[in-house]
Amino acid sequence: MPKLTVQGVGEFEIAPGKRLVKALVDDAGTDQLHACGGQSKCTSCRIKFIDGEPEKITQAEKDTLSVREITDPGVRLSCQITCDSDMTVEVISGMASSGRADQGSAVADEMVPDPIWTTK
Q: pLDDT value at position 120?
């Protein structure tokens, strides 16, 4: 099982293929935002990879990052990443500092939209 390390939180074994945003909330217990419900329509679920950043990326994530002009190295959308290998991340978009009333809409178990995989 892949190991997810969340800086300042701990290490967690995650079911292979689980969406990272769900692992951060359900398994790690973080306050990771997901305002659009994990559909790559916003950038509220941003995380920063410290180690283990996947080389593959969905076309939806690539497009959203481009439109929002997010170019910081290692910053990705947790809703568009699956836990397939060990990774270390930093939560950079949490509810506590957002002023929002909640983390966002429910996130489906399956990737939305259907992933079209490419490389960075």
A: 81
Location of structure tokens 């080389």: 55
How many CB atoms are closer than 10 A to CB 118? 12
H helix or E strand, kind and range, residue 116: none
pLDDT averaged over 10-residue windows placed end to end, the chain, 120 residues: 97 97 98 95 96 97 96 97 98 89 91 92
For residue 70, count CB atoms less than 10 angstroms from its CB and return exposed for 0-12, middle for 13-18, buried for 19 or more.
middle
**Which pLDDT belongs to residue 95?**
87
Other residues' Cβ atoms within 10 Å of the Cβ of residue 6 = 22
- The reply to whether CATH 3.10.20.30 applies to domain 3-119 is yes
Given a contact cutoff of 8 angstroms between Cβ atoms, the answer to whether 119 and 57 are in contact is yes
